[in-house]
Every structure is written in C-alpha cells, then in structure tokens.
Design a protein that fits this description.
Order of helices and strands: HHHHHHHHHH
Number of strands: 0
Structural class: mainly alpha
Helix content: over 70%
Distance between the termini: 27 Å
Radius of gyration: 18 Å
Length: 217
Amino acid sequence: MKALIIFSVTTIISFLGSFHPGPLNMSVIQATLRKSLIAGLWMTVGGVLPEIIYGYLAVEGLKVFDKYPQVFEIMQWAILPVLLLIGWKYLKPKQMQEELSKSEEINVDIEVTSYWGDFIKGFLLSFLNPPIMAFWLVILINYQNYEYLKVEFLLDKIAFVLGASTGAFILNYLCALIAIKKKGAIFQYLSQNMFDKIMGWTFFLIAFVQVIKLLVF
C-alpha cells in the first residue's frame, strides 16, 4: 500500500514537474509534427530513461542521511538557495526564451533519420540535464517528513523510480497526442512567459514553505 502511494504521488509530481515547456517537450512535438506519432513516442521513451537514472541516484543518496542525520538537516537548509536560484531563473523569460530558441535551432539542424535516432535524441536532451537529480533529491528530502512517503525499502525505491519516469512519460505522450491532433495550432497553447512565471513563483513558494517548516517544526 505504501509503495502504491509513493508511486502515485511521485507520478503526479513528475507529471507537473515536466509540464513546463522545455527542449524535450518541444522536440517531442516537433518530431510528431514533422514525422509521426511513433517518432514522438520513441523520443519520449528515450527522454524518460534519464528520469530513472537520476531518480535512482537520488534514492541512493539518502543512505548518507541514515548514517549521518545532521547531514539531512544541513541539506534542508542548503536547498533553499537552490530553490530561489531556480525560481529566479524562471522569472527571466527573455533569457530562457533565447536559450530555448538556441536549443530549437540546434534541434532543427540535427536530422533524425530513424526511430533509433529519435530515441537517442530524446535520451540526450534529458541526460544532459543533471538538475533532474537535484529536483528528485529535494522531493525525497521532503518525503522524509511523511511516514507514508518515506523511501526505505526496495519496493519503495522501485515505486519511486517508476513514478518519476511514468509521470514524465504521460506528459510527453500527451504532448505528442495534442500535436498530432492540433497540428499547426499546437504552439498557441504553449505560452512560455506564462509557464515561466508560474514555475518561478512556485519555486519561491516551495522555498518559503521550507523555511517555515524548518523554523516552526
């Protein structure tokens, strides 16, 4: 039952965390529009594999907290500037749009000649994004505050890693489906500025809640 809860909550978090338009999301849409739904799905599968890798590395990192409890407290404080920095970067839409445009230009120059190429491209887009592990480490640290979400046993770890990849897969799969149905109108529903502001203030809110928890509890 506990593993099911961990899987469900992690899947939801992964889905919401992947909702912000980024290189992988855009590339999945691009592959679907230019080639086919199957091409988009192959890229999606390749893109979620790093979620499994980084999720597993984050889980194994929790062993340190079992041996040295003080490290857990230090990490809770140390993560605050990270959250604020991420939020601040999201609230700089012009800069992020330029970075996204550059990544899209690179993506256009790379010709994908097979589904295997789509798979590799999706994998690299996610694998070259190590902050994923930091994101999951933050989630795991917060999980430790709730008995029914603590990742302790092998089944818990499997549930967490599967949830991390499942949520990302569902989101990108939906992107591919919307792309194939909406065709040219797809980008009208993806406002970069809106998502940047939402994500930026969300990270600030998470940091604020973290401070309250550390000072009060």
